[in-house]
Design a protein that fits this description.
The complex is a heterodimer of chains A (92) and B (251).
Chain A lengths: L1 E4 L3 E4 L4 H17 L3 H18 L1 E2 L10 E3 L6 H5 L11
Helix pairs in contact in A: 1-2
Chain B lengths: L3 H17 L5 H7 L1 H48 L3 H59 L2 H48 L13 H11 L2 H18 L14
Helix pairs in contact in B: 1-5, 3-4, 3-5, 3-7, 4-5, 4-6, 4-7
The chains are: A alpha+beta (92), B mainly alpha (251).
Amino acid sequence: MIVRISGEGQFRLPDEDAGRLNELDNRAVSAVEQGDETGFQELWTQMLEIVSTDGNQIGDDELVESDVILPPRDITLEEARGEFTGDGLIPD
Amino acid sequence: MPGLAGRMSTVVKAKISRMLDKTEDPGETLDYGYQKQTELLQNVKKGIADVVTSKKRLQMQSSKLEQQVVKLDTQARQALSQGREDLARTALERKNLAQTELQSLDQQVKELESQQEQLIANEQRLRQKIEQFRTKKEVIKAQYSAAEAQVRIGEAANGVGEEMADLGLAMQRAEDKTETMRARASAVEELEQAGAFDDITQLGSGQDDIDRQLSELTSGAQVDDELSKMKAELGSGGGDAPALEQGEEKA
């Protein structure tokens, strides 16, 4: 599967990682909901570690869509609580 | 994934479809959307320039504060050796505040620096992907039937679209951050203009109010601590007390 870390590019990971990532992601969401900063950062670090350990960065010559897009590495609990909305550069 | 990744993907995919699905052939949109691409890359350049400007402003404030910290420390020592504990305390309170501001400024300069690096890397990646797309499109057209080629070009276009959408989000984040930094820089400037970091040779009428506010802002315990350390140092050092150094004229 293809995973993007927002702001860092895409990585190719074995499909087996999907389950682990999904589980951590769900737990991270509960941590966010409970305002548990430490718990959130811990889970988030684990998710990033899976990508950096198992993933191979995809070259600039490959044009593929990601299966999963993760937020930026330095996301804060406050940002995670938000909706990631907004238009940025891309006009509607 | 319904979690963070899910929400992030939804935002990015919505952006891609807004960008590419307006025409039947997303590949065509990208191929002929030179203007859009140029605009995007121009905006990134402007965004990077904004980050650099904010960073420079914070760096300037930071080096000014560094000088004030040194000066106030010297003045506290001098005041103490002249038996003016009240003045020494005032100087230390100001030094304390300046140091706290300094730490937070330095942290923010670091954050802006990494943001700047990331935007530059993202911009380069997008440029390469756009080039790659143009080349690949021709190869696909030559190798596949029209229908199959359209599908493959569409996939490649979505790949590039994702890169663009992601860069858009990174830009927005950088803008939010520089906005916060600008507010921060203005707050420090206000403190500066109110005389909070002035050295004690510039104490004049109306300073009582600032000093009252300052002692509320800075930790009394920390000042006491530093004061007694300074006393101990001066006690063991001895020697004639120099006169208070004149502060630099304010611009």
